[in-house]
Amino acid sequence: MKHTPPAEVIPLWNLSEGSCARIARVLGPSDHVHRLDEFGLRGGTKIEMFRPGNPCIVRLSGNKVCLRTDGLLEVLVEPM
Question: Per-residue DSSP letters for 34-56?
Fold first, then answer.
């Protein structure tokens, strides 16, 4: 049986411009997580970093979404 190493999971904010990733987890207060879910930012969703930083801008399903970290919310991604 072949062992597959676990995917690298990093904070969204560490992606460089033009990098693509799949959202692994969104952590934080339930109302914050729910709001991002309404925008489509949820586990399994593919995103592209349009502009890194704080706030950052990601491309999601052809739309751009601006995210600002407030210290309570963490988006973890698997680079592709």
Answer: HHHHHHT--TT-EEEEEE-SSSE
Taking the C-alpha atoms of residue 26 and residue 8, their distance in angstroms, rounded to an integer, is 15
In 3D, which of 70, 74, 80 has the Cα closest to residue 47?
80
For residue 35, give Cα distances in angstroms to 32, 40, 52: 5, 9, 21
Please tell me the predicted confidence (pLDDT) of residue 46: 96
Cβ atoms 42, 36 nearer than 8 A: yes
Q: What is the pLDDT of residues 9-46, one digit of tens each?
A: 999 989 999 999 999 999 999 998 998 899 889 999 99
Give me the domains of the chain, ranges plus CATH numbers.
10-79 (2.30.30.90)
